[in-house]
Amino acid sequence: MREMGLVGKAARIYRQKAAPKRFYAKLPNLRLELGSPTEINQQWVGDLTYLKVGKEYQYLAVVLDLYSRRVIGWSLGDNKSAELTREAIRQAIRYRKLKDGLIFHTDRGPEYGAYLIQDELKRHGITSSMNRPKYVTDNAHMESFFQSLKTEKYHGEHYQSKSELRIALGDYMMNYYNKKRMHSALGYVSPNKHEILNS
What we know:
Elements lengths: L30 H4 L8 E11 L2 E10 L4 E8 L4 H14 L7 E4 L3 H4 L1 H9 L3 E4 L9 H15 L7 H16 L13 H7 L2
Parallel strand pairs: 1-4, 4-5
Antiparallel strand pairs: 1-2, 2-3
Helix pairs in contact: 2-4
């Protein structure tokens, strides 16, 4: 081949690299063992949903204290991501005084199973808990919250911009839902009132 001016090409060997680990193994539902919380900051629950503004979607992540149903953290953004859910968690952490043994329960979505989220929880001593596979009712309190929010503040409204939606959601959650909306499970008082009465 050299005499003919030809040079052979050596075959390249490609070694497949292991994909980076982005998600934790699925975690158990700790709430099945613990039962209902008896005071604040024992069990938090979180979830996210989407809301349409014009032709675009906004994603809302929320954290509730399960004992009082109080909204303690929320974030709104363009993308359904672990970064979005982390911001809601960080807000809750800034807002509340953490206790030993606190668990944070969510569904099994990648936005909560990501290392980004699990590492954040571990850093603050919070234990992660997740729904059982195919048991959407394991996080029924969050489903109920989003149903109330959409019925009372979203359906029938025509928000013209993301900022308008953000203002409306913040007002609903922090001023109406937390301070004024009564819950039968709380003895027909608001989340804020329930915490005051039982502090």
